[in-house]
Amino acid sequence: EMQSQPSKNAGLRFICGIICKSKISRFERILFRATRGNMLFNQAPSEEKIMDPISSEM
């Protein structure tokens, strides 16, 4: 008789952050492949201007 036990690695995990609009589709494809399609991708535009820490540009 087989019994299933919850995996210790299972659970809800998330990634959040801000990336350029031009890189959103590439980032989504990378996540899709890394998770083998087991993901939910959501995006929302940022109304604020954000300073680039490397170039100090807005």
Automatic annotation (TrEMBL):
Topology term for the membrane: Multi-pass membrane protein
InterPro entries: V-ATPase_116kDa_su
Main subcellular localisation: membrane
MF-aspect GO terms: ATPase binding; proton-transporting ATPase activity, rotational mechanism
BP GO terms, sorted: vacuolar acidification
Cited Pfam families: V_ATPase_I (PF01496)
Single GO cellular component term: vacuolar proton-transporting V-type ATPase complex
Keywords of the record: Hydrogen ion transport, Ion transport, Membrane, Transmembrane, Transmembrane helix, Transport
Domain of life: Eukaryota
Compartments where located: Membrane
Family, per entry: Belongs to the V-ATPase 116 kDa subunit family.
Record PANTHER family: V-TYPE PROTON ATPASE SUBUNIT A1 (PTHR11629:SF72), VACUOLAR PROTON ATPASES (PTHR11629)
Function (record text): Essential component of the vacuolar proton pump (V-ATPase), a multimeric enzyme that catalyzes the translocation of protons across the membranes. Required for assembly and activity of the V-ATPase.
Name of the featured protein: V-type proton ATPase subunit a
